[in-house]
Amino acid sequence: MSRSPYIRLRVEANGRRATSADIIASVQREILGGGLPAGSRLPPVRVLEAQLGLSKNTAQAAYDELVARGLVEAREREGVFVLASERVGTPAPIATPPLPLVVPPPLSRPDAPGKGGIALSTVFIDPELLPTERIAECARSVLREKMPAQYDVQGYRPLREAIAKRLSSRGLDVDADDVVITTGSQQSLDIVARSLTVRRIACESPVYAYAKLLFESLGSELVGLHLDPFGGIDLAAWDRALAQKPSLAYLIPSFHNPTGYSYSSAELRGVLELCTKHGVAILEDDWGSDMLSDGDYRPMLRMLGGKDVLYVNSFTKKLLPSLRVGFVAAHPSLVPTLVSMKRLSTLGNAWLTEAVVAEFLDRGYYDTHLAALQKALDERYAACLAALEDLMPDGVRWTRPGGGPTLWLDVPRAIDLAALEAHLARRGVVISNTSAAFVGDGEPHLHGFRVAYAYLKPEEMRRALTIVADALRGLAR
Ligand SMILES: Cc1ncc(COP(=O)(O)O)c(C=O)c1O
């Protein structure tokens, strides 16, 4: 049995060698003053004697007396402990000022899978579609290497090289030195946003809610870029919004979360031109350009705009969420600032996970995995569309992203979304509350939620959508 740690005693003896009486007086003073709370363990006799240079049995005599006075008790083989006594009472804690906290944004993830019920809105991918065996194989092989004592703040170089090689093969001009490895895209967004001197950020509305909440938590003012996934981008409206001179536009051009929308090539070019015109830097969150099947991928802003476009991507969703590895590719002039921001928040990432992902990429497993994943997502997407066509009542519409992980289901305005969410939860279907995704105070232009087909198997999806359709009919009456 491990013993409790003991508290080092301070025994006052006015410069001479301490006596038993000094020990008793010091302990008594500390206990009465609240410095030795009930339950604290006193040093073992031999430790105290060595500490104070006492002759044998002096400390033991002091402890015996403290026991006799009812201040401490000796527990066999455990040590000597301070007792809670009426004489001592419970000392009032010393009042320290409360921590001034910001009003917390909704930080729980109600749509995360595993919370009970069918997670209809989760952006995670079905774990059965993830290559856990091969990741374990890479981890075993990495563990046979000698663990380095140091880490690279910018990120494990072989991983940065593998990422640069991969992106270069897709037409992006990226060197290993431009890449900063992060704890998922979320940290990439964080270090970019914290690097800004002008904290005004434009983003699509609706937008990935945790980006919006993050930017707001850092004191950024947000400029909404109205995104209607049923009508496309109104470039004239974006022109007016960008004229407010945000320093950065945070954009998700492929399989936009939460609507599933992907910018057309003309929209990509139009947005780049507007940002150039207004002097707005671009942060591209590319979680989706490689979610098309048959080796196709969508063009990226980073591809068309070059190194000045900050480019963020991650292995967390498509490879394995628990690895928490993402990255940002930046213009070389920005890298030192981003690395400094990363250093300030985490000092660096764990070498082990970085090395496992590097090994996975190096063996060519990632491309094989993506090809199989895309095929599976296509099948689930088709099954989801078929279920929607079969089941949804009139007045309900949905986006058709053409693949990827999610679409947007828009329901009639007469349906109260909070009531729908609660109603579905009672029937075991969990949908996300998307109110936090809209920028600005006005009535959101969309009225619905994310339907994610990457997590659910087709039969589960149909079951969930049957429940949604019934609920919509019931609540409409
Ligand atoms: C669009 C988008 N960007 C970034 C993130 C954060 O991802 P990561 O897990 O890589 O931190 C998410 C997570 O859902 C997301 O949907």
Mind sketching the topology for me?
Layout lengths: L19 H13 L8 E2 L2 H8 L5 H11 L3 E4 L3 E4 L35 E2 L12 H12 L13 H13 L9 E4 L1 H12 L4 E6 L3 H9 L3 E8 L3 E2 L1 H8 L5 E4 L13 H14 L2 E5 L15 H5 L4 E5 L11 E4 L5 H12 L4 H12 L2 H27 L5 E2 L7 E5 L6 H10 L2 E2 L17 E5 L5 H19 L1
Helix pairs in contact: 1-3, 2-3, 4-12, 5-12, 6-7, 6-11, 8-9, 13-15, 14-15
This protein binds pyridoxal-5'-phosphate.
What is the structure about, briefly put?
Helices cover 39% and strands 13% of the residues. By secondary structure, the chain is an alpha/beta fold. The longest helix has 27 residues, at 365-391.
How would you characterize the overall build of this protein?
- There is one protein chain.
- With 477 residues, this protein is an alpha/beta fold.
- The chain folds into 3 domains: 1-93, Arc Repressor Mutant, subunit A (Orthogonal Bundle), CATH 1.10.10; 132-363, Type I PLP-dependent aspartate aminotransferase-like (Major domain) (Aspartate Aminotransferase, domain 2, 3-Layer(aba) Sandwich), CATH 3.40.640.10; 368-476, Alpha-Beta Complex (Aspartate Aminotransferase, domain 1).
- The protein contains 15 helices and 16 strands.
- The chain has helices at residues 20-32, 45-52, 58-68, 132-143, 157-169, 184-195, 209-217, 235-242, 265-278, 301-305, 335-346, 351-362, 365-391, 417-426, 458-476, and strands at residues 41-42, 72-75, 79-82, 118-119, 179-182, 200-205, 221-228, 232-233, 248-251, 281-285, 310-314, 326-329, 397-398, 406-410, 429-430, 448-452.
- It has an 8-stranded mixed beta sheet with strand order 5-12-11-10-9-6-7-8, sandwiched between helices.
- The radius of gyration is 30 Å and the shape is elongated.
- The protein starts with 19 loop residues before the first helix and ends with a helix.
- The model has no long low-confidence stretch (mean pLDDT 93).
- Pyridoxal-5'-phosphate (PLP) binds at residues 123, 184-186, 208, 252, 257, 285, 287, 314, 316, 326.
- Pyridoxal-5'-phosphate binds at residues 123, 184-186, 208, 252, 257, 285, 287, 314, 316, 326.
